[in-house]
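assembly run, all chains below
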Amino acid sequence: MDVVRKSLIATAVIIAGFAGAAMAQEPTVVVEDAWSRASIGVNRPGAAYMTVRNTGEETEVLTGLRTDIAMMSEIHLSSTNDQGVSSMSPAGEIEIAPGEAIALEPGGLHAMLMRLQRPMVKGETFSLTLVFADGGEVTVEVPVLDIAARGPEN
Amino acid sequence: MQRRKLLGYGAAGVAVLGGTLFAGWWQVDGPGAPVPTGPRPLSLSLSAMEFRLTDHEGNAVGPETLAGRASMVFFGFTYCPDICPTTLSDISGWLDAMGEDAAAIDVVFITVDPARDTVEAMAEYVGNFHSAIRGWTGAPDEIAQAAEGFRATFEKVPTDGGGYTMNHTASVFLFDAGGRFASTIDYHEPREFAVPKIRRAMQDKTGGTT
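ok done. output:
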């Protein structure tokens, strides 16, 4: 996690306001260190990772995702039990308390990108919109890294 | 009347008790029992395994392919967006950290999804990671037999939209040059633990005896 924080400078920090909110207000959700791995063609699902930080005073509830790179995108949770068996399932709505952050990282929460509309090509980026329960949205440009990337810094 | 009522209560009591006992049995010993926890069953020796698969270059392979050299085997599938690429890139990182020594160990990725992971799909996939990593696929019953030998499990799980994903053992199994099970590296285990485990398995040329 420290490494992730330190690499913050190297990676684009994208702050976007709540485009959907009726009133103009200070951005209260910040997405840091977004990254994804290149895909092989379009048959296999992709995944994107990032840190979603709630800088506001109210709890934010992440309800969904939207992107033009995939027909279907959802937050999924991978987990590994004490027998070493890994499984994955939709994570549902995710609450982020004021001042807290959730990490979408390998082996845990991730933005699952299903039915890719085009390959995820190393060196390119794609837009991913995070949708919140209050109607707010945050759009982030996700860089596509190597298929063997291990984190936002490589 | 009074007596009948009592009998009725008695019968209900027995039924409740029976139901409780049944619920208890269901949760503890019956089909509702949790997956046993505690020590996991250990992989067999490679020499005690029997399965026939095909590697990503079309060669016939089996447990005997790994005889004589230390080896590292793990299960997964190429349509896995999170755990499997992470495991493959972790392993690639461990092998990179070992430098030239990595040439002395066999590394095998066995798919649990042969319906989608054909020889061609495996070749297309493993080519993106460390060159030591081989991809093995084959008939479903042979893969089931391989998993049984390694004491790995897998299960097909339907997903929204008509697709499916696979739950599977994500640990990496290490064997010494004698084909004896040495240890496991758990999913996403830090490099500073993983690399010494690999080196230990590689040094253990006599198969666990010193």
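The mean pLDDT of chain B is 87.

Residues 2-28 of chain B form the longest helix (27 residues).

not gonna interpret more than that til we talk
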